[in-house]
Amino acid sequence: MRKLTHRSFIKTIAVAALLITGGATAQTQELEQVGRLISDALFFSDQYITPAADAAVYQAASGWISSPKKPELWDVNLAFHVNVFVTPQSDRRFTIYNSDFTFFQLEEGTQASVPTALGNKDQVYLSGELGDSPLRLETPQGMNMEVVAYPYLQGSLGLCYGAELVVKYSPQVNLKKSNYQVYGFGLKHNFSQYFKSLEDKKIHFALLAAWSKEDVSFDFLNVQTDYGSLGINQINGLVDTWQFQVSGSKEFGKWEAMGSFMVSTSDIKYKVTGETGTIEETIPLQQILNERLKSIYKTRINYIGEAAITYNIGNFKVQTILAFGKFINSNVSLQYLFN
């Protein structure tokens, strides 16, 4: 087999990109190699980052309703939250087999257990060949954190007819090997106000509809070749979530106990980001990969329960929340009411 020169390799990638995105089948061996490499990267992307994207839904779901009570008009509630998420063992690793790949193969054995984005630092080597040039890479590490904690701010404004506008925002939080950000808004409406007997017993009910955007990114495949880097060093999971929630609470003096049930639907997308490779001087490889990543976009529907306890100290509140379903997520907040 002839050896690829730098120029011919660039041409091969360019032609392969056109053929792959156009749905045609590459005929030469070099074109097939490039197509298989991209397919393997897509397979690994899905297995690696999807658990983290699923977990992001739970992290964003907690704490939207501080109380289902009817707010007073123009009351402002500001809160500082700390979210604590325990990564489950079942989502920290996955098994790869040589049969899963069309370009890469494990350097040792026929199967290996490797970390997802939520896993540890374990790595194995994969190898392949572009033209006559060997290509070798280490599988990406996970965040290596059994407990993930991050802060965010939340505010609410009392509106007419027992409605309340809620806004949530977190700056980009740097975690080990990853970054996380969430923001969104919601609208809550108290409906126990229509039942005086419930209000007299200090029992409250409310409905919430909310939208949130979660962005979680991880170091990914640092692919180096004799022809330069391919620029797939970072991958993002982008999650758009619509959440519908019903909550009920009972006041006991300074205490308030609340229970909630929520249904969320999340559109999960993936995107290669970060520093581009030297290959970008000739073709937009990241753009090509991101187009191919559309094939693994997915929608998740989650049913989540939530329990909360709040202690009121004048205009201050301290609240703890536990959300549960596929994952367990906890949330602690300090709130202040301006009225």
TrEMBL record:
Pfam families: DUF6588. Residues 1-26 form the signal peptide. It comes from the Bacteria. The keyword Signal applies. Keywords: Signal. The keyword Signal applies. This is Uncharacterized protein. The lineage of its organism: Bacteria, Pseudomonadati, Bacteroidota, Flavobacteriia, Flavobacteriales.
